[in-house]
Automatic annotation (TrEMBL):
Molecular-function annotations in GO: DNA binding; transposase activity
Protein name: Transposase IS110-like N-terminal domain-containing protein
Organism from which the protein derives: Solobacterium moorei
Biological processes per GO annotation: DNA transposition
Span of domain Transposase IS110-like N-terminal: 2-106
Cited InterPro entries: Transp_IS110-like_N, Transpos_IS110
Length: 167
């Protein structure tokens, strides 16, 4: 069975054919298009495409064989691609946060805490600006800096943060 490699559209059909023990081969749609032009076929329709794909299956250079293993590898490729997209998105979000902090509360980054740590993010969500810290009770600031569990405690103290607000 031969078909054009059209992304996720043919995955279910491919899985069905592989389950039924058919041999499945993919042809690059760009190769089909170039071959159509090379042969001087101007019109594009399903009947002509089917004949063209059948003709291209006779030459190994136009197709690649698909197996259940290659389907699994494709899934891993997709997961890896998604992981990298999410990393890029996280980086963009962190840059947006940093830009906003530089505008609203630039002093916060002069402290010696790890940026984007749980304590940092928790504190900033509770107190997003210097003015929100200025009149807050010092005990509440200490509570916001306290981390739960046995992990590392925040190096920054409530007093250091209060000092930065300059009020």
């Amino acid at each position: 069975m031969g078909m054009e490699d059209t992304g996720h559209y043919m995955i279910n059909l491919t899985n069905y054919l592989l389950d039924k023990k058919f041999t499945v081969k993919y042809i690059n749609p760009r190769a089909t298009c170039l071959r159509r032009k090379e042969l001087g076929i101007s019109a594009k329709n399903d009947r002509k495409d089917a004949l063209l794909i059948a003709e291209m299956l006779s030459e190994k250079k136009f197709w690649r064989s698909i197996s259940p293993r290659s389907i699994e590898n494709g899934k891993f490729r997709d997961i890896t691609r998604l992981y990298h997209q999410l990393q890029e998105q996280q980086n963009q979000d962190m840059n947006r946060l940093q830009r906003a902090l530089d505008i609203v509360f630039p002093e916060v980054n002069s402290l010696s805490w790890t940026r984007y740590s749980k304590a940092y993010m928790k504190f900033l969500s509770a107190y997003p600006s210097a003015s929100s810290i200025a009149f807050e009770d010092i005990r509440n600031l200490r509570k916001a800096l306290k981390t739960e569990g046995r992990g590392r405690q925040c190096k920054v103290t409530a007093e250091e943060i209060r000092e930065l607000t300059n009020y």
